[in-house]
């Protein structure tokens, strides 16, 4: 009897643990995406249709646990676990899952168009509003960099996916890794099997937190410039925005928030079109003579970071490719999404700069006439506030998993109680993270500086340096000479741009921090 009781208790504990892991893994399949990106695309366009697929995450099927062995206790209802190879027992006949298995569709998949929509969301987000400012300090070279960054990011995205596959004993190419972290760990094995993953996680956390800070900065900036006559400073607007965002600390999931993802993205595209339409209406006054082949040595490296940051999507690509109906279409999808992004970004940055020339501001909508600026900026603020919970929740998930829920390797006690509820001190840490984003936004309220710093530090690392390095490390024996040349060239150029942009952005950041501290 005691043995039976212990067996049942063990099954219940396993069930709870696996359900928790399933939820977390599924969230990261989605966040890996925002994670990466997060910039703009943490939520998928058709959230309700794809939610089931992303909960399964990283190509893991959630199936009924095994228990059909002779003499074994049958599994409890709802007891589930992960099956990477899909060899687990089928669900009960007649169930929805059984029908999917029998029809050859063990889990929902996304089409190449849906995958392309997610990549487009990530690289066509609201941070393109800073691209005209990059042209201000780079001229035609800035336009060239928009094209160059699109080509390089498209290439590194493809080689990153190539690192997920290896050739088995039969000569077949099979997927042996699931994520960016897996690739990083494989490169550092056997001496440091977890070092690469930790580096990627740190870069991911920095990028996500900086994205949250940028949302607060842009919210305060847009509101202040929309209502300049009100006795409210930009810092005060940032505080108000953070007060609205404080409930994010209580988030348990993103189901409610992500429903706004498609609406916000469409609204942003409409705003971009309005800005371009206004610029076209002033085509006769365009200052072509202001666009030159020159660079501002001190500020152009910051522009490099801005451009790179606007293309970051690599962090979620492995999960996205693994969930496509036909992974062979991934390369084609990357081509057309980055070509479209290159054309739209280049046109947007050029026509906006031609319209305002040397008066181009960090956030281009601040240049619009006051009659339409307020309306456009309010929509952008709403989008920024609704987008904030996505990277925030992703950062919280990474921190909690790495520091509080990593089994015996966790640095701190678990922040969740036995009933799955968040402990009070865990909630306090979440609130502290929200307040930290506010403090950074108050002391360094410079959209371009923060965006350039993030792009130079984590954007260049995740998009340029690490993919080319991993590709050389894992597949160098099978690479053709031109692939080796491209990888080495990207690593060197990316390293130079990253270091240069980081140093100049950091100098500007420190100077701005001192100025605001004195005020």
TrEMBL record:
It comes from the Eukaryota. Antiporter that exchanges vesicular protons for cytosolic 4-aminobutanoate or to a lesser extend glycine, thus allowing their secretion from nerve terminals. The transport is equally dependent on the chemical and electrical components of the proton gradient. May also transport beta-alanine. Acidification of GABAergic synaptic vesicles is a prerequisite for 4-aminobutanoate uptake. Keywords: Cell projection, Cytoplasmic vesicle, Membrane, Neurotransmitter transport, Synapse, Transmembrane, Transmembrane helix, Transport. Residues 65-95 are annotated as: Disordered. It is a multi-pass membrane protein. Belongs to the amino acid/polyamine transporter 2 family. One of its GO terms (cellular component) is presynapse. It catalyses: glycine(out) + n H(+)(in) = glycine(in) + n H(+)(out); 4-aminobutanoate(out) + n H(+)(in) = 4-aminobutanoate(in) + n H(+)(out); beta-alanine(out) + n H(+)(in) = beta-alanine(in) + n H(+)(out). It holds the Pfam family Aa_trans. The keyword Secreted does not apply. GO terms for biological process: gamma-aminobutyric acid import; neurotransmitter transport. Residues 109-505 form the Amino acid transporter transmembrane domain. One of its GO terms (molecular function) is L-amino acid transmembrane transporter activity. The chain crosses the membrane at residues 141-165, 205-224, 260-280, 300-320, 332-354, 374-399, 427-444, 450-472, 484-503. It is found in: Cytoplasmic vesicle membrane; Presynapse. InterPro entries: AA_transpt_TM. This is Vesicular inhibitory amino acid transporter.
């Amino acid at each position: 009897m005691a043995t039976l009781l212990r067996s049942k208790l063990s099954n219940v504990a396993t069930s709870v643990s696996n359900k928790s892991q399933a939820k977390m893994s599924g969230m990261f399949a989605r966040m890996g995406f925002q994670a990466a990106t997060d910039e703009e695309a943490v939520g998928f366009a058709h959230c309700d249709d794809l939610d089931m697929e992303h909960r399964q995450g990283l190509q893991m099927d959630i199936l009924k646990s095994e228990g059909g062995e002779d003499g074994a206790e049958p599994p409890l209802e709802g007891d589930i676990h992960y099956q990477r190879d899909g060899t687990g027992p089928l669900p009960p006949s007649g169930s929805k899952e059984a029908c999917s298995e029998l029809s050859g569709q063990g889990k929902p998949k996304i089409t190449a168009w849906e995958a392309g929509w997610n990549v487009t969301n990530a690289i066509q987000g609201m941070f393109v509003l800073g691209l005209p400012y990059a042209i201000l300090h780079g001229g035609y070279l800035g336009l060239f960099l928009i094209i160059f960054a699109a080509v390089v990011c498209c290439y590194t995205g493809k080689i990153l996916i190539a690192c997920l596959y290896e050739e088995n004993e039969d000569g077949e190419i099979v997927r042996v890794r699931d994520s960016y972290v897996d690739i990083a760990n494989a490169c550092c094995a056997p001496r440091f099997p977890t070092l690469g993953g930790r580096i990627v996680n740190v870069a991911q956390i920095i990028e996500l937190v900086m994205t949250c800070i940028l949302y607060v900065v842009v919210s305060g900036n847009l509101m202040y410039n929309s209502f300049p006559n009100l006795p409210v400073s930009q810092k005060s607007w940032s505080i108000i925005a953070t007060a609205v965002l404080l409930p994010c600390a209580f988030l348990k999931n993103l189901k409610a928030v992500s429903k706004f993802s498609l609406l916000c993205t469409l609204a942003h595209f409409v705003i971009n079109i309005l800005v371009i339409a206004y610029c076209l209406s002033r085509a006769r006054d365009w200052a072509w003579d202001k666009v030159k082949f020159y660079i501002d040595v001190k500020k152009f490296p910051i522009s490099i970071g801005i451009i790179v940051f606007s293309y970051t999507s690599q962090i979620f690509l492995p999960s996205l490719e693994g969930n496509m109906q036909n992974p062979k279409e991934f390369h084609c999808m990357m081509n057309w999404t980055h070509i479209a992004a290159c054309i739209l970004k280049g046109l947007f940055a050029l026509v906006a700069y031609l319209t305002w020339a040397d008066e181009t501001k960090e956030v281009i909508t601040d240049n619009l006439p006051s009659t339409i600026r307020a309306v456009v900026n309010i929509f952008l603020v709403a989008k920024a506030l609704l987008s904030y919970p996505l990277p925030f929740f992703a950062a919280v998930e990474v921190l909690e998993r790495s520091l509080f829920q990593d089994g015996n390797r966790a640095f701190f006690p678990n922040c969740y109680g036995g009933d799955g509820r968040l402990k009070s001190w865990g909630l306090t840490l979440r609130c502290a993270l929200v307040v930290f984003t506010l403090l950074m936004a108050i002391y360094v309220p410079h959209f371009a500086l923060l965006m350039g710093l993030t792009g130079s530090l984590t954007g260049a690392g995740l998009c340029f340096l690490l993919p080319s390095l991993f590709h050389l490390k894992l597949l160098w024996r099978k690479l053709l000479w031109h692939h080796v040349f491209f990888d080495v060239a990207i690593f060197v150029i990316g390293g130079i741009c990253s270091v240069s942009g980081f140093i100049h952005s950091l100098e500007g950041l420190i100077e701005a921090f001192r100025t605001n501290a004195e005020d």
